């Protein structure tokens, strides 16, 4: 069942952020754009490359009014230990949510029940906490965080310009489309 267009269910969790343990809830996803990035586990192989890549895009995304949240089924304590022991993870400034109960992974429908781990899922949520994009990758396929920038710019454009849509490979400032009967069969 697709989560596109649906508001995320309520949850509360513990997280690690910049040297502190904090409380996070679904309410934190409201009032701004959010990227929620699920990954299988701390202290693994592909995961630190992805999370470091997200950090590399963090300032650009913040300039767009976006906050990043990473989530695994590890605890917030494990996130801190990983942060303290890994050069790649030690760079991370965004919130790392612990989901040992698997509740958040189930809400986002990314939990591998047999393994007890989250799949590689990336979600863009609008300021109402409504899912606008979903990307799920197999465990061995890492994601490219730079693609989030254009996706968010397109989502923000569509939200701010009702009646317009962004075509494939759209970049900020490029032409958009206005769906109408006149365009049917002409593109």
From TrEMBL:
Keyword line: Antioxidant, Cytoplasm, Disulfide bond, Oxidoreductase, Peroxidase, Redox-active center
Xref: InterPro entries: AhpC (IPR017559), AhpC/TSA (IPR000866), Peroxiredoxin (IPR050217), Peroxiredoxin_AhpC-typ (IPR024706), Peroxiredoxin_C (IPR019479), Thioredoxin-like_sf (IPR036249), Thioredoxin_domain (IPR013766)
CDD domains named in the record: PRX_Typ2cys
Gene3D superfamilies the UniProt entry points to: Glutaredoxin (3.40.30.10)
Catalytic residues identified in the record: 47 (cysteine sulfenic acid (-soh) intermediate)
Record flagged with keyword Ribonucleoprotein: no
UniProt-recorded Gene Ontology molecular function terms: NADH-dependent peroxiredoxin activity; thioredoxin peroxidase activity
Thioredoxin domain mapped to chain residues: 2-157
Domain of life: Bacteria
Subcellular location per the Swiss-Prot or TrEMBL entry: Cytoplasm
Listed GO CC annotations: cytosol
Catalytic activity from the UniProt record: a hydroperoxide + NADH + H(+) = an alcohol + NAD(+) + H2O
Any one Gene Ontology BP term: hydrogen peroxide catabolic process
EC number per UniProt: 1.11.1.26
Pfam families on file: 1-cysPrx_C, AhpC-TSA
Top enzyme class: oxidoreductase
Family the entry assigns: Belongs to the peroxiredoxin family. AhpC/Prx1 subfamily.
UniProt function note: Thiol-specific peroxidase that catalyzes the reduction of hydrogen peroxide and organic hydroperoxides to water and alcohols, respectively. Plays a role in cell protection against oxidative stress by detoxifying peroxides.
Assembly, per entry: Homodimer; disulfide-linked, upon oxidation. 5 homodimers assemble to form a ring-like decamer.
The name this protein goes by in its record: Alkyl hydroperoxide reductase C
């Amino acid at each position: 069942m697709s989560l596109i267009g649906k508001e995320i269910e309520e949850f509360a969790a513990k997280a690690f952020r910049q040297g502190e343990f904090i409380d996070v809830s679904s309410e934190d996803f409201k009032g701004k754009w959010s990227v929620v990035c699920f990954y299988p586990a701390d202290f693994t192989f592909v995961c630190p490359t992805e999370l470091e890549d997200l950090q590399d895009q963090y300032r650009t995304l913040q300039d767009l009014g976006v906050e990043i949240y990473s989530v695994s089924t590890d605890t917030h304590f494990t996130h801190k230990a990983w942060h303290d022991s890994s050069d790649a993870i030690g760079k991370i400034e965004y919130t790392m949510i612990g989901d040992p109960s698997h509740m958040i992974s189930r809400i986002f429908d990314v939990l591998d029940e047999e393994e007890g781990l989250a799949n590689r899922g990336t979600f863009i949520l609008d300021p109402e906490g409504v899912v606008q994009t979903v990307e799920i990758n197999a465990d061995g396929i890492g994601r490219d965080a730079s693609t989030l920038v254009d996706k968010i710019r397109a989502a923000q454009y569509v939200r701010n310009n009702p009646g317009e849509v962004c075509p494939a490979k759209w970049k900020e400032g490029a032409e958009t489309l206005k769906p109408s009967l006149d365009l049917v069969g002409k593109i």
